[in-house]
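From: lab user (bench 3)
To: helpdesk
Subject: output format question, protein + D-malate

Hello, I'm new to running complex predictions and I'm not sure whether the block I got back is the full result or only part of it. Here's what I submitted:
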Amino acid sequence: MQTKDINGFRMAYTDEGQGSPLLLVHGYPLNRQMWAPQIDRLKDIHRIIAPDLRGHGDSQPVPGPYPMDLLADDLAALLDALHIDQPVTLCGLSMGGYVALAFYRKYAARLRALILTATRAAADTPSGRAGRDQAAEVAGREGVAAIVEGMLPKLLSAGTMKEKPELVGRVRQIMLRTSLAGVQGALMGMKVRPDSTALLPAIQVPTLILPGEEDQIIPLEEARAMYDAIPGAIIKIVADSGHLPNLENPDFFNRVLRSFSGM
Ligand code: MLT
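Helpdesk reply: Thanks, we reran it on our side. This is the complete output you should expect:
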């Protein structure tokens, strides 16, 4: 594990491989370990930087809230600390995608391309915001494990839940490593994130959209709406996959990434 002191906390990250930089940004409540199949199999063509966002994985559990802009600032600070000044491909999954759009708003010149996977541009609905408050309260009262057990069946497709117990166990272990501060900080940050829909037509870097076909958390229509709005975007729907397409169907996911990187 590598670490850097940035923006007032210690950020853990993986930095492996050779080639143009690929910044992998995990979802909630996950960490960089969710990118193992990408780090292993794409490091021959990319220098892969995979951080643990504040409060997640091995990064320090600083108090929240974690607005998406702040998480984008953390990514920019990590790139600075690593002296990466060439434009990067930023791949964000779910909350990582919210951070990717915030990063585009603030640091577009630092981007070579965007990969938006299992994510959406819209802000939370009023009932979604109420759900964030409720989840933060449950996490405080019952602990992170209660959040993990509640989310797990929604994160993965029915097929993954039934046929891949090893993967289900791995995802559970990854999520359980999120601190209480991380869970609550991310929830409160996602709750106030702005609607990025108006940004989409202005995106000027090549963009790949990679939804899981059976995602129960972010329906496919949200991915199609981003595809329609972003000029020149490419969409590839990941079969046999719920909200974690990079883990549920890594062969397809990696093949698409590899071909997008070569374009
Ligand atoms: C995630 O996977 O990052 C979250 O489920 C996103 C969300 O709760 O909006």
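A quick orientation on your result: The longest helix spans residues 126-142. Let us know if anything else is unclear.
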